[in-house]
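[step 3/7] inverse_fold.run input=structure_tokens len=260
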């Protein structure tokens, strides 16, 4: 299927690995010019070096999204260069832990990592989309938005705030041809999920494979998802065929979440 987005300009946050890198790769395959942002310039440049012909449409954008000044500067530069048509909001997760006993500082850090950069950067890049009457805002969340994940209280709380913001924004900008959606990953085989499995194994004093086996048993598909499977959904939502899909949360979880 031709998604009709060749030549569009995308900014993919967290593009140095995992789900962000998978989304960037899927967009590149559709002919999109991708700005991949992350803190590690080295990781971004290593990805670019392995892209072959697609490297001409790839730019590494080192940035610390927890620095408000850096967020403002990034948006100003991108707007001066012609703006962004597709924004993929993808931020790192805070450390695991229970809801009870979290400090105010811990919650502030979690929102500063997961939510505030997304809100501000979207605000700064949105006017270009409105002017051209076309745009895509895609935020990567977590299955914890619909079914809170034990021992991930900070992530559950901050990502739920992003979900509420996303749904609200979708209703405000739909008439301008701008769609706003979320993708909720389940157990996708990324470094983040491996880290969570390792933390669970240490907490329960069992092997990592036992944790993974238990997780797979809870997934109807019987396996962890592949990053490229997730990236394909991101590319579809960014495409013209998805122009009537907005205000939605799309699960990519192999059937793990049982709710309707």
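[step 3/7] decode complete -> sequence:
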């Amino acid at each position: 299927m031709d998604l009709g987005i060749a030549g569009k300009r995308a900014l993919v946050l967290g593009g140095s690995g995992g789900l962000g890198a998978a989304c960037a790769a899927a967009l590149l395959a559709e002919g999109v010019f991708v700005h991949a942002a992350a803190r590690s310039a080295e990781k971004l440049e290593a990805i670019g070096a392995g892209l072959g012909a697609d490297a001409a449409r790839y730019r590494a954008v080192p940035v610390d999204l927890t620095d408000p000044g850096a967020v403002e500067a990034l948006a100003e530069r991108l707007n001066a260069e012609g703006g962004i048509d597709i924004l993929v909001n993808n931020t790192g997760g805070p450390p695991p832990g229970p809801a009870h006993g979290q400090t105010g500082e811990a919650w502030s850090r979690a929102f500063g990592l997961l939510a505030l950069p997304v809100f501000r950067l979207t605000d700064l890049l949105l006017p270009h989309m409105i002017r051209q009457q076309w745009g895509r805002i895609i935020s990567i969340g977590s299955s914890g938005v619909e079914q809170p994940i034990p021992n991930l209280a900070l992530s559950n709380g901050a990502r739920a705030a992003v979900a509420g913001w996303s749904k609200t924004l979708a209703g405000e900008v739909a008439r301008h041809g701008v769609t706003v959606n979320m993708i909720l990953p389940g157990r996708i085989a990324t470094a983040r999920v491996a880290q969570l499995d390792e933390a669970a194994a240490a907490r329960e004093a069992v092997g990592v494979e036992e944790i993974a086996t238990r997780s797979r048993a809870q997934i109807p598909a019987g396996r962890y998802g592949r990053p490229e499977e997730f990236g394909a959904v991101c590319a579809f939502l960014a495409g013209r065929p998805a122009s009537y899909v907005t205000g939605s949360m799309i699960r990519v979880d192999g059937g793990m979440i049982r709710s309707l």
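[step 4/7] annotate
The CA atoms of residues 119 and 165 lie 8 Å apart.
Residues 153-173 form the longest helix (21 residues).
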